[in-house]
Amino acid sequence: MRSIRLQYRQDMTKLPLSKAESFARKLALKLKGGEIIALTGNLGSGKTTFTKALGKALGIKQNISSPTFVMMQQFLTKNKLHFYHLDLYRTKNFKEVEGLGITEWWGHPQTITVIEWADKIQGSLPKHTQLIHLYRDEK
């Protein structure tokens, strides 16, 4: 796998794996629709763990798993918002993602979008995207 350089923005939240679930539950209370949450971090840093906790806190009953091979999954929250979960691990460029119709529902008031491996398309993300970098706790 090629190395990807991520430039950290000042407004990026840096979050250890041990805090991922509790932060996701707190964030869920603030989400109203239209949000885009971009997750970055190494393999095993907690991106899917965070997404599962966020989905559960939003009332999603189905099992949320990493959609690596299908790239995207859609769920409905208890408040009838469409929860889009993207995993861009195998993505090469933004054109592949754009082919899903992603730009049509980014920021729509009836959607919440969570993107794992968002560093692969960081330059194409809307400005209002919330960036969260997850990392493994020090031992």
The first-level CATH class name? Alpha Beta
Main sheet summary: 6 strands, mixed
pLDDT < 50 stretches? 1-10
Count of structural domains = 1
End-to-end Cα distance: 25 Å
Give a written overview of the molecule.
The protein has 139 residues and is of the alpha/beta class. The chain has a single domain (35-135), classed as 3-Layer(aba) Sandwich (Rossmann fold). The protein contains four helices and six strands. The model is unreliable at 1-10 (pLDDT under 50).
Quick recap:
With 139 residues, the protein is α/β, with parallel strands linked by helices. The protein contains 4 helices and 6 strands. The chain has helices at 20-30, 47-57, 94-98, 102-105; strands at residues 13-16, 35-40, 72-76, 82-87, 111-116, 130-135.
Keywords for this entry:
22% helix, six-stranded mixed β-sheet, 139 residues, 4 helices, Rossmann fold, globular
Topology of helices and strands:
Blueprint: E1 13-16, H1 20-30, E2 35-40, H2 47-57, E3 72-76, E4 82-87, H3 94-98, H4 102-105, E5 111-116, E6 130-135
Parallel strand pairs: 1-6, 2-5, 2-6, 4-5
Antiparallel strand pairs: 3-4
Helix pairs in contact: 1-2
